Amino acid sequence: MQRFVDLTLNGIAGGAIYAAVALSLVLIWRATRILNFAQGAMLMVTTFIATSVLSAGGSYWLALAVALASGFVLGAVVERVLIRHIEGAPPLNAVVVTIGLFVALVALAGMIWGGNPRSFPPAFGIRGYEIGGRRVLFSPNDLFIVVAVGVVMVALIVLFRRTTLGLRMRAAAFEPEVARLLGVRVSRMFTMGWGLAAVAGALAGVLVAPSVFVAPSNFDGILVFGFTAAVLGGLESPLGALVGGLILGVTLSYVSGYLGPELVTMGALAILVAVLMVRPSGLFAHAGERRV
User: Fold this and answer.
1) Is 52 inside a domain boundary?
2) Which member of 49, 117, 201, 245 has the greatest number of CB atoms within 10 A?
């Protein structure tokens, strides 16, 4: 029973990180109707920037703030320089461009920071809480991760449902021509969407960095699991991204603990295929007419 509890708590902490990446993918999809396959490389770059701040003597919180700010700038620049030229083009164009961007950013990070892995400190202690005389595999830093991702999820729900900016972003994504006639600056909304999505991705990078060494290729798996979580929950739903990430994290924790860590990637693939076959729109997709 203790092993089951530990695996569950460990899966929740890991799933929250997958949910953060899924939230960034959901945000870009809802704002621009594009899937960003370079999200993993973008969060890798912002995490390297955070390590540079730490190396210069900055605090963890300063590094986090710089990572989030640089994420917004990077997302906005990518949209203006690359994505803007393919908006309205066939979906394959966006796939090719974002994959090319992924390769370019990985190569650029290797040239700037080198290929040697770097450690990254956690925000809080990693020693598990003691409950009932037993120490569980859930630490203050894990709690911080879950709370931080939950706050981002709530913020996105409020953004899209309760604010004028969110309504304009959704209108620009679904009906750009009509939005322009109504006075919405569609290009600005697209830039804002990419910038905010990169902020969510930067947060995910900083949160997962203490668990993995920071290196140009060490974040590829996080994107795969984040994409699986986004598909599982539904690309239209921030809540679905959070729930999908938690379900995926707990499931993969069970797979690793009971069947072996070498089957984790296979388990994620099985979940992705099952969702695409049974409910391709995701668990939280609306059955009725899409709401704008």
Assistant:
1) yes
2) 201
Residue type, position 171, single letter: A
Burial 75-85 (b: 16+ CB within 10 A, else e): bbebbeebbee
Has residue 70 got a pLDDT over 60? yes
211 is a domain residue: yes
3-state secondary structure labels for all residues of the chain = CHHHHHHHHHHHHHHHHHHHHHHHHHHHHHHHCCCCCCHHHHHHHHHHHHHHHHHCCCCHHHHHHHHHHHHHHHHHHHHHHCHHHHCCCCHHHHHHHHHHHHHHHHHHHHHHHCCCCECCCCCCCCCCCEECCEECCCCHHHHHHHHHHHHHHHHHHHHHHHCHHHHHHHHHHHCHHHHHHCCCCHHHHHHHHHHHHHHHHHHHHHHHHHHCCECCCCCHHHHHHHHHHHHHHCCCCHHHHHHHHHHHHHHHHHHHHHHCHHHHHHHHHHHHHHHHHHCCCCCCCCCCCCCC
Q: Is there a contact between 153 and 284 (Cβ–Cβ < 8 Å)?
A: no
* 152-170 mean pLDDT: 84
Name the domain count of the chain. Answer: 1
> Which range marks the domain in which residue 124 is found?
20-219
User: Residues 246-259: pLDDT tens digits?
Assistant: 999 999 999 988 88
Confidence of residue 107 (pLDDT cuts 50, 70, 90): very high
Domain assignment of residue 12, yes or no: no
Contact 187, 173 (CB under 8 A): no
Phi, psi (deg, nearest 5) at residue 141: -70, -35
Q: What tens digit of pLDDT does each residue of 184-219 get?
A: 888 888 888 899 889 989 998 999 898 888 998 888
What does pTM read for this prediction? Answer: 0.86
Q: Contact 178/12 with Cβ under 8 angstroms? A: no
